[in-house]
Amino acid sequence: IELYAGIALDYDYWEDGCINGWKCKFSPRTFEGRIGYNVFTGTSPPRDNPANPTPTTLVTYDGRSKDWWSTYGIMFEIKAREDVEITSFSFYTVSTTKKTETEIWTRDGPYKGYTSSSFGWEKIYSGDIDHRGPYELTVVKLKTSVYIQEGETASFYIVSPGIISVKAKKEGETVAQDDAIELYAGIALDYGYWETGCYNGWQCKKSPRTFEGVIGYNVFSITDSPRENPPGAGATLITYDGDRSKDYWSTFGIMFEIKAREDVEITSFSFYTVSTTKKTETEIWTRDGPYKGYTSSSFGWEKIYSGDIDHRGPYELTVVKLKTSVYIQEGETASFYIVSPGIISVKAKKEGETVAQDDAIELYAGIALDYDYWEDGCINGWKCKFSPRTFEGRIGYNVFTGTSPPRDNPANPTPTTLVTYDGRSKDWWSTYGIMFEIKAR
Q1: What is the pLDDT of residue 259?
Q2: What CATH number did the domain enclosing 384 receive?
Q3: What is the pLDDT of residue 178?
Q4: Which of these three, 365, 380, 399, is where a domain ends?
């Protein structure tokens, strides 16, 4: 790169903002400091799609002259021309209101038939943001990216009262596109989150409307990457299809098995809960092999997570990232027991049946335990074990390629462990310290 001498502006942002005739423009002046940049080798990527975390952006706005509106929210669809990851939305607002309650929802496929309530939608963002007004972008970076496979469509609903949208010619028409994504005209919703929230019979659904702003995304150059399995982002097995009409239950915990079709590392569990209880005591246990014969107590199990978490309710995922990942070698099975009172599970046909699968892992129907952690803790003879039940949510994992690492020695910074303890029955002592030797083989 080459840097040229420029000018300095003072007393205001631009020359036309000079105060009392003071001189604002000073020339020549040189930028003093450091300029960070990346160099690309090989085939040059387009400027807005470098091989680094900065996402590509689709700009959908070209000025304030269009027929624009301020509403409660905007709903629209994006079609992927390549495998993409939607990472952010930047939009304009009618005012500069502080701490505006904002939510972003998504669903696979079109939004038609799903505008009246949150049924069939997943909330991927919730927070209070400061609106920047009609001439400066209000930026929302998604905490959970949305992956869309080439040729597929995903719907989005941005709720941020005062968001600006532009009138389009026809709902569903293409209003902006580039090589990777295509944006369709959608609808605006006003006076409530969903159509069923209209007040006083006012019109809530305004069509057609266009999202106005910038859509941030990354492109993945991979053959047939599944929607929830982009490179570098970890894979996710989705076990829930958004249908809340299923026979679902709220219990104390859910126990199930996962079989590995490849060498995998289980990194997280995301699930639904019956309420939005704060600081819910949550534990996750695991063991090698099946859980049968090990449902009555913690004997034979290893606790890999313990903490107080905030439940997100039945329509938003409660995410638990494991502090200790669990490695399962190809062909092996591991059992898991998630204890989080109020966790939702779905009734299955048969315990042990396959209820969800992809190329790397397979999930089997298990059991739900209620009224206590384990079966031997049932109170007043109430039934504690409910079978069959299915874990409902998402299972995060990574796949290891190349030579299969042993389960306790993955190809990442997590070390191998030598377990020297098998119970409390030995002749044990409490002292000030312990000194010992280790010989390396």
Answers
A1: 96
A2: 2.60.120.820
A3: 87
A4: 399
Burial class (CB in 10 A: 0-12, 13-18, 19+), 362: middle
Contact 307, 280 (CB under 8 A): no
CB-based burial label for 343 (10 Å; 0-12, 13-18, 19+): buried
* Same domain membership, residue 170 and residue 262: no
Same domain, yes or no, for 25 and 115? no
Give the chain's domain count. 3
On whether the CB atoms of residues 284 and 318 are closer than 8 A, the answer is no
Burial 53-77 (b: 16+ CB within 10 A, else e): eebbbbebbeeeeeebbbbbbbbbb
Q: How confident is the model at residue 420 (pLDDT cuts 50, 70, 90)?
A: low
Confidence band (pLDDT; 50, 70, 90) for 53? Answer: very low
The Cα-based distances of 143 to 31, 86, 88, 265, 319 in angstroms read 35, 11, 9, 22, 11
Choose the weakest-confidence range: 13-22, 73-82, 195-204. Answer: 195-204
Buried b (16+ CB within 10 A) or exposed e, 375-395: eeebeeeeebbebbbbbbbbb
Query: pTM of the predicted model, to two decimals?
Result: 0.46
- CA distance linking residue 394 with residue 239, whole number of Å: 6
Same domain, 394 and 308: yes
**Residue 436 covered by a domain:** no
Based on the fold, state whether residues 188 and 125 are members of the same structural domain.
yes
| 75 residue type, one letter | M
Tell me which of 190, 220, 250 is where a domain ends.
Answer: 220
Claim to verify: residue 163 and residue 241 sit in the same structural domain: no
Q: Among residues 292, 254, 288, which one has the least CA distance to residue 274?
A: 254
Instruction: Specify the pairing of strand 333-347 against strand 385-391.
Output: antiparallel
How far apart CA 69 and CA 161 sit, in angstroms, is 11
Is it the case that residue 408 has pLDDT exceeding 70? no
440's tokens:
């390396």
The beta strands (E) that lie in 92-220 are given as 100-108, 122-129, 138-148, 153-167, 174-177, 181-189, 205-211, 213-220
Residue 431 has pLDDT above 50, yes or no: yes
Range of the domain at 61: 56-220
For residue 429, being part of any structural domain is answered with no
Domain identity same for 207 and 247:
no
Average pLDDT over residues 166-179: 89
Read off the tokens for 335.
């059992």
Structural domain contains residue 376: yes
